Amino acid sequence: MSQTSPRAPRKAIVLAAGLGKRMLPITATMPKPLVKVAGQSLIDFALDKLHEAGVETVVVNVHHFADMLEAHLSTRETPRIVVSDERSELLETGGGVKKALPLLGDEPFITFNSDSLWIEGKEPNLLRLVQAWDPDRMDILMLVAPLSTSIGFEGRGDFHQDSDGRLRRRGTDDSAPFAYAGVAIVKPELVHGTPDGAFSANAFYDRAIAKERLYGLCLEGQWLHVGEPQAIAEAEQCLAASKQ
Q1: Which PANTHER family does this UniProt record tie to the protein (predicted)?
Q2: pTM value?
Q3: Sign of the CA dihedral 192, 195, 201, 207?
């Protein structure tokens, strides 16, 4: 494994508390992070990538079928896993990060959507993200995927990217070339002073954009957006083809 930077995040949060409504009927009997693609659960993909990138402690928030998810997590030895219990209230992506902040500490950390899946290029994308992190210039560095090569994503794109790597939202444009690929490095200061209760992580991104400190790293390989049941087979076909 390549050496990670001394400033590389050592902690992460995997956002695994959502109801996964778009993945029904599968999520009527299990949490979405335990859905398997090519024999591996989505959350194990995330945890393996984080371990590979040198992350030592991963917070996993739980709500939907929390007991089932905790039982699965208890079977893993690496990385070290700490559960953030959201059984009493669904907090969305931003609220989930805020609740977990005491567990994440005062240093920049990685947020990882539990349904983010991709085929690697030449270098592991999470390792590339960690190595590209520059806290002097950036408040957030997110992995973005080109719509042109992504599978299973039906949206019009989230971001435009300037030549220096800064991101700006699609805004009123018909489309934008990049989608958020579900992984970002975030400074904890962006979480301070946000509302209590449920809110979206977009609040963090907007704070970084306001300071022109939201940057993107283009994913190499292929992003597989597994949002709905029919996307599983498509993702499995891509994974199988990549190994031939």
Answers
A1: N-ACETYLMURAMATE ALPHA-1-PHOSPHATE URIDYLYLTRANSFERASE, NUCLEOTIDYL TRANSFERASE
A2: 0.94
A3: negative
